[in-house]
Amino acid sequence: MTRQKITVDANEAVAYVAYRLNEVIAIYPITPSSGMGELADAWSAAKIPNIWGTVPLVVEMQSEGGAAGAVHGALQTGSLTTTFTASQGLLLMIPNMYKIAGELTPAVFHVSARTVATHALSIFGDHSDVMATRQTGWALLASRSPQEAHDMALIAQAASLRSRIPFLHFFDGFRTSHEVNKIEYLSEDDLRAMIDMEAVRQHRARALSPDHPVLRGTAMNPDVFFQAREAINPFYNACPAIVQEAMDQFARLTGRSYHLFDYAGAPDAERVIILMGSGAETAEETALYLQQQGERVGVVTVRLYRPFSLESLMKALPASVQKIAVLDRTKEPGAAGEPLYEDVVTAVTEALRTGKAPFQHLPVMVAGRYGLSSKEFTPGMVKAIFDELKSDTPRNHFTVGIVDDVSHTSLDYDASFSIEHPQTVRCVFFGLGADGTVGANKNSIKIIGEETDNYAQGYFVYDSKKSGSVTISHLRFGPRPIRAPYLIQPGQANFVACHQFTFLERLDVLKYAAPGAVFLLNSIYPPDQVWDHLPREVQQTIIDKKLKFYVIDAYEVAQKTGMGGRINTIMQTCFFAISGVLPRDEAIAQIKKSIEKTYGKRGEAVVKRNFEAVDHTLDNLFEVKVPDRVTSTFSRRKAVADEAPAFVRETLAPMMVFEGDNLPVSKLPVDGTFPTATARWEKRNIALEIPVWDPEVCIQCGKCALVCPHAVIRQKVYDPKYLENAPETFKSTPAKFKEFPGMMFTIQVAPEDCTGCALCVEACPAKNKSQVGLKAINMAPQPPLRETERVNWEFFLSLPEVDRTAISVGTVKNSQLLEPLFEFSGACAGCGETPYVKLVSQLFGDRTVIANATGCSSIYGGNLPTTPWAVNREGRGPAWSNSLFEDNAEFGLGMRLTIDKQSEFARELLVALAPQIGQVLVDAILTADQTSETGIKAQRERVAQLKQVLQSLKDPRATMLLDLADFLVRKSVWIIGGDGWAYDIGYGGLDHVLASGRDVNILVLDTEVYSNTGGQSSKATPRAAVAKFAANGKNLPKKDLGMIAMAYGYVYVARVAMGYNDAQTLKAFLEADAYEGPSLIIAYSHCIAHGIDMRKGLEQQKLAVQAGVWPVFRYNPMLSEEGKNPLQLDSRDPSVPVEDYAYNETRYRMLLQSDESRAEALMKLAREDAIRRWKLYQQMAAIQYNGHGQEPAAGKSE
Amino acid sequence: MADLTTTYLGLKLKNPLVASASPLSKKVEGVKRLEDAGISAVVMYSLFEEQIVHESHALDYYLTRGSESFAEALTYFPDLERYNVGPESYLELIYRIKKAVSIPVIGSLNGISTGGWINYARRIEEAGADALELNIYYVPTDPQLTSQELEATYVQLVRDVRSQIQIPLAVKLSPYFTALPNLAAQLAEAGANGLVLFNRFYQPDLDIESLDVVPNLVLSTSDELRLPLRWVAILYGRIKADLALSSGVHSARDVVKALMAGANVAMTTSELLAKGIGRATEILTDLNNWLDEFEYTSVQQMIGSMSQQAVAEPAAFERANYMKALMSYDNRIIW
Prior knowledge:
The structure holds two protein chains of two kinds. By secondary structure, chain A is α/β, with parallel strands linked by helices. Chain A has seven domains: 237 residues, Rossmann fold, CATH 3.40.50; 153 residues, Rossmann fold, CATH 3.40.50.920; 151 residues, Pyruvate-ferredoxin oxidoreductase, PFOR, domain III (Pyruvate-ferredoxin Oxidoreductase, domain 3, 3-Layer(aba) Sandwich); 35 residues, Irregular (Pyruvate-ferredoxin Oxidoreductase, domain 4), CATH 4.10.780; 132 residues, Alpha-Beta Plaits (2-Layer Sandwich), CATH 3.30.70; 70 residues, no CATH class; 176 residues, 3-Layer(aba) Sandwich (Rossmann fold). Chain A contains 42 helices and 38 strands. In chain A, helix 1 packs parallel to helix 6, helix 11 packs across helix 14 and helix 27 packs across helix 37. Chain B folds into two domains: 299 residues, Alpha-Beta Barrel (TIM Barrel), CATH 3.20.20; 26 residues. Helices cover 41% and strands 15% of the residues of chain B. In chain B, strands 3-4-6-7-8-9-12-13 form an eight-stranded parallel barrel, surrounded by six helices. A two-stranded antiparallel sheet of chain B has the order 1-2. At the A-B interface, helix 2, helix 15, helix 21 and helix 41 of A face helix 2 of B.
């Protein structure tokens, strides 16, 4: 039987099987498993049936814990049920996993194994999550590659049904889940052949049903629990053999043979490595290579890790083995060894003792850690381990892949060691996220894999920025299957493409090039001029490695053919033309076919435009005659300026240029603590255009600074005397602030940090009266301005900050004189969240602790290399931390509790020490009014005085008070997160924190989807909008979180939209902070996931309010004390049709385009939702209060 | 009762009241209601090639933007099975309307490229339209573009489309031509079976407080009838094409005027949008009554009866009329 060979990643390969073998799928998004759930949801929406002819029911839950609960329930009532998850998500499933296993329920969870957050979160792959489930009673089945993941997904399901043991099938997150590889696809007949229908029938027969009722999930007492727990043993004993039977059946069906433990290498191997996951493939390939060199080495791949079959392991190990290295892709600090190592040691010693071992003497067994958080694991590292095993006393508990200069655990390895087959072609592409490089390469891999006899592999590396991100694509293809789950190593690429000329200024792109390789560069300079524009290092490498050098001005071709900034198909055409993998004509035909397939349903115009780009490419592709000497007068730029702090220079700078792998252990903090204010050192220069200020037109309203998502546009008022040393082009105008007569005013842009989003221009209300197309802020090309504005920016920073006590911050204009302490984040250009976050930093940043839920805000707020939270000149600024996704409200509450307790304790100590400190100072501190900036400043001065006094006291309580004295100055706690957190996964905690009455400020950045993981639906998603997991349009209305919070009566609640009314937004933030109880602000945050022109984000906010879908209000419990209604509506009756707002956004529009009648039906309901909610608010706001309203929240903490 | 039947583009119509392109034809139900109200033919709302191209590019842009840039969010939207961003939904609507009504359905097309005009014209024909109206909407802003070049483009366009389709072809014109009769004759020569006078353009307005140029579409009034009335009267009998009068038709009297000037049909939309589709029934009743009252036996009897060639004083439609009007105006001031 001939099966289809297709090129897919493991997520798709696994989801294909899982979807077809289940009836109910409960999902929740988490990287890197989200793709499986998204596919399942999309297939379900498209009515694709499973192998039994029914369309699986896919339901999104509020958390992985919820998903596991739903899975448990569905299983108990007899459905074939699955889910997909990873990392923290898997941890949340653990309680249910115990139950499901304890009840002997067949099911399979598919896990793209990912690092569990410890000192830091990491979205990348290792086995720390899977290892945390090894005690639950689930079978753990590992895959090494996309093909194996595809196969094991089926084997797991078959074995689970037969054994009644639930299976966790796992494969390495990103390295396998996201690796595109050519695999043989199983047919639905294959799936049917492997599934034992009698087992399915039995599963259903065991289900809970009132027609044959049973009771499951009892509570047991000491008399029987133990025995009942042991009663399960026969099932575990039988399981390994059942799995092997399934593998054998699978081998008969497909020809691909697997074993619980698979050995590869020399039959007489003395040195053996045991490991599982993708690293095993690298190790196996390396062992086979070394075997050919005469080395007696081998590798055991662990497939079935639980139940652990001692007998099968012994069968796999060669009798000749003398030394074994067991590798774990996890770290278990404090353990005798990592889990797989401990299991192997136990098994080997037990087998030897019981005569089951193939050898007579106990081999030397050592443990090693590798590959945490997708750290590369290469043949060079494998060889280093085999070499280490040659030693009489090989190092134990070693690490490989890093330089550990602290504990000296790491093995040295030869980074240049390669086992790449000479017939395999290796290509590396540097691109921008926005230019479509990755998409084009995925297409290329599909073309090569599916339209030629070649095997092909693609893997893609992204940086952590959401704007201006760099991508590196690693492509391999050739006549042999590609079993190389590691990046193309430096010096190994036959083809290197750099799709952005400016990368050459800062990245060592050509380090990947092999001698004689091809170098393709997207260059605005023609072939006869490009050489002189290359840095010296690049020229030298081209000459030394004798590279064949091609250029194309892809942007010009793209402009001419209407492609804008998308150069994907152009560079793809160049790649095929140069690489020769296919004859040119055939390659172009295949590219066009692929374009049809990819873009066809988006319309003929899109296809036509891409075709034109392809057709215009080759005439613009030129080979460059390479000179024989270096002529350039400049070198590659340093990652950061010399004046950057040492930590930034030595630790963060290498990360910025993709050299972080080379950092030794000693360069990293021991506990995940990092300095703030580091983003200012990473000058990314990603804006093509930046704002330019026109002082003549400016009305000094502050709106541009307020809305700037990246804090790159700022304003200051200052004494004219400072202008004496101003740079020539520095602009200034008399300040129009009543508080600052005679002062000067400047709006300045940070040219190298701006993303060019133009939100400031949209916000600017001042138009040039002689030419209304111009405003007080206008966009202009960045390169000619870069240097002068950089100098101006430096000068601007040197001007003194405004005295916070000198102004009332109650107006937008004044608020924007406050220094932002959140700057230059990696958020999307035009982000709708960050202006709110920045406002918090301006208003309260110097006295704020922030608890940040996982999500976009934790990524642009805390993803290395550099972070945006900053400090002022006094060294104060927001202290920030991210705990988890689900617990952020509680995390923030904990911070509040500390502040409350420590300040209480400090006050107690203050009273106790009053005789020694002096009653006047003590009284002043205890009775200080800290409701204003002036009051806070005065209190800080008192505390400084107090500290001086305390230092002279000998009383041990004085030392203690010294530690706590800062808590005597008012602190704010801001709990920040997105709607996925607040409405879904963290809602229970958020509700409890609101109910607690404590003084916390909760800011919900409501984008109405899970933005960070790619736009999955949340309970904040509005009716009629399309989102992932709501592909047919959300059919239920948005949850009204504000209404729920108002029900408490003592919670300050505000709904704001900066684009509708910035003054209302500002007022809400100030009132929330001032309110001495829980506050909740729900902020409309336009988002890239809405599919809007991000420049129009503020306009959409306004329309949302005017259409009634986002009424803005403030509910201030303090008003009820005054006998007033606490609810104040800050917007007017809906005046714009909902569709006039909604159909500006792709999320709504795409439903109209795909299913007009459903779109219209949902839109009608959405209109009704808006009207109904507005009327309800109106009624609430109209209630007469008589002065007997709610008590203020203070003191309600019980 | 008078015979209301007329012919337009070779189509035999039960009366001369035709619904011109408007949102009323965006639903099958809307067209059915027009038919029920007595409308004799309907011109579909226009298929704008520019809009199709724009929607297609916009969809592609927004589905692609931000994708493959960030490891956690390789895309931001689910990839739906299909998108109706091409002309398909328009074509399907024609097909469904044709199934649902018995009155002729005239497709309407506004293209931006030669390929687009021809391609979409063919597909509108294939979808079952009884005729096609080319809605040539172009505002020339380039000082280098001459009127001759522009007119030649129009004529060539009609020729190209005519050569590709079999169904009757009408061209909807703007009033802004220096020598309209000449262009009309050229278009007829190139294969236009009918001319529709005139297209009403969106006329932008200026908001002098916000300093924005704002779109402003106001419905027509009976006063606007006079411009097409004059030109229908002038063209009638001079070119080999049917004439349809569009703009300013709000009452039976307006219909009568249109017919007397020489139009085969009178097209109305604003009146129906403002007062409801049922207004068509009233107009037709009024028309019948008027014909009876003034003892006309058929509509045919009056078509062109007051065209320039038919009236006693042809100059009344020319410049002299302007002068006379001014004088009468002045007289009134003096009085």
